[in-house]
Amino acid sequence: MAEFLTDIKTIRERARQQIEKGPVTDAYGADLARVLIVLNEALATEIVCTLRYKRHYYTASGLYSEPVAAEFLEHAQQEQEHADKLAQRIVQLGGEPDFDPDTLTSRSHAEYDASTDLIEMIKEDLVAERVAVAAYTEIAQWLGEGDPTTRRVFEELLAQEEEHADDLRGLLERIPADRQA
Fold first, then answer.
1. Residue 166 needs a FRET pair 20 to 30 A away by CA distance; which of 8, 67, 86, 134 works?
2. pLDDT at 90 over 80
3. How far apart are CA 97 and CA 40, in angstroms?
4. What is the per-residue pLDDT for 178?
């Protein structure tokens, strides 16, 4: 472990250097350019997930659709909150959030889905959540102590993505097996 810098005069002098970088100081230990790319990929993922859940919310139909559609809407709103958190972090780090619709799906970890069958919608959403869980786990581990704030953002998202996956698994378990064929 490195020795803690206790000389407040030195800390103040360093804080004045490169002031335009905002929160990014010499203590920042990650590859900033790569972190911004990863954050923008996650942003694209969350936007695609928001759109997929919204599509499923509006097009869900059938005997079991009411509680499932309500879950889709809740997840869409939470995925939008995730996108907002990621965009905010990108800006804090001096980057630019990439909302370009022409490249969203190519940058996203998850895929968009236009299924019309309720069971397929749930399964595709569950697959997307599992992709996010795997990706965000890897990202949090990769960030380690190099950027603890961004790591915590991903850990928060990860916890909610795990909850979404559990919710979707629960929906599949409640729909009779003969309806899932």
1. 86
2. yes
3. 6
4. 66
